[in-house]
Amino acid sequence: MSMITTATFLSAALLLLVPGILTQEPGVTSPIQLMIVNSISNTPNVTHTTDIVFRGILIGAMRRLQETNTDFKFTYIENPNYGPYLVSVNGLAGDDTEHTYWELLVKRGKTIIRPDVGIGCFIPMPDDTVILKFTKW
Prior knowledge:
Low-confidence stretches: none
Order of helices and strands: HEEHEEEEEE
CATH class: Mainly Beta
Oligomer: single chain
Number of strands: 8
Structural class: alpha+beta
Mean pLDDT: 87
Number of domains: 1
Strand content: 35-45%
CATH architecture: Beta Complex
Radius of gyration: 19 Å
Strand order of the largest sheet: 2-1-8-6-7
Largest sheet: 5 strands, mixed
CATH topology: Ferric Hydroxamate Uptake Protein, Chain A, domain 1
């Protein structure tokens, strides 16, 4: 067997051994929670449930929620260097003069993380609680 054939065979065999690589059905979704938090006003937190496809990005789940739930709206702008940038949620927009913005946080189990990517690249895990927090910098 040549080196290329051996490498190809081993790569294919490895794919069969790694759980989920070939067994995940396309279109299968998992639930995530989307919590809207306004840390500036006394507005109560609002939590929505939506679905995420396997290895799907957050903005896809947000679009799906917006299409099916009239109580959730968001806008974003496309930054040529960094991708989608969240501008507003339910009509409330960040403002440079007020030093306000929407922060992306994720609660996994008991831990809250700040992803190093935005809504266009972040891939939620099933049962994550994604927190969109209106706050100041």
